[in-house]
Amino acid sequence: TIMLSLRITPFGERKKQRLVVGRDITKIYHLNMIRRDFVANASHELRTPLTVIAGFLENLLDAPGTPEPHRRPLTLMHNQTERMRSIIEDLLTLSRLEMRDSAEEQTAVDVPDELHLILQEAQALSQGRHQFTAQIDEDLLLLGNPPELRSALSNLVFNAVKHTPDGTDIRLLWQRRAEGIEFSVIDDGLGIPAEHLPRLTERFYRVDRARSRESGGTGLGLAIVKHVLNRHDGRLTIASELGHGSRFVCRFAAKRALARTEPQTAAAL
Ligand code: ADP
After folding, report:
1. pTM of this prediction?
2. Domain Histidine kinase, which positions (predicted)?
3. Exposure b/e, 23-52, CB count within 10 A at least 16 = b
4. Using CA positions, which residue lies closest to atom 14 of ligand 1?
5. Which of 179, 188, 216, 230 sits at 20 to 30 Å (Cα–Cα) from 26?
């Protein structure tokens, strides 16, 4: 921090003086690194035993000799194991996002194509309980990392399915705007109380813990979206009104736009 002030000397002279305040963040940086590595290692170590447990549970469920009264508890155990696996996969995704160099693997991402696939998956997840509309600029591609962008876009679309009641309209927009490129997911569901909005992208933060769990949520989706956007010089804005629905908007810098007709090479940013 640099502060400028004026000092009046005993002779009435005005003298500019400068005060520099610094803070050593080496320790914070180091602790953050330890936390990051711990989460990554713990998630990685838990992955194998869980895969083994899930595998044995599947075998038991498939075996014709498994007694009928055991099937329900086995199914419940299997569901919970799968839930744990999703949480661990999301934690690993977050750790990788934190560790990776943002300059790597930049290519022309066919966002319209990805969005058509995501829409199909969202429709399958919704099972006819939501109405979808999409306005997609078919020629607009984005310079970035394909799996990361796929996961960010799908998280937002699947959230609209998971966290809104039956009969909700879900609208997707992919377009060029004066301020850059925008991807929006707009729903007319129940909305989110204002006090929760600033905390939604924190890890494991959910408005309704029990409901999120029921819908298969890990509470890590929006944290992943935020990290992916950070790595693409993008920003996530969330606006919501109770009783009227929510609007999640991802904004990317115009320099990341590529036209489908342009040669699709990774341009230097
Ligand atoms: P989850 O795995 O629970 O979906 P997220 O990090 O993706 O975790 O989202 C955090 C919380 O934000 C959700 O649990 C839910 O309460 C709220 N949320 C996200 N999207 C919506 C939406 N479209 N409508 C209402 N609430 C939402």
Report:
1. 0.84
2. 41-256
3. eeeeeeeeeeeeeeeebbeebeebbeeeee
4. 206
5. 230
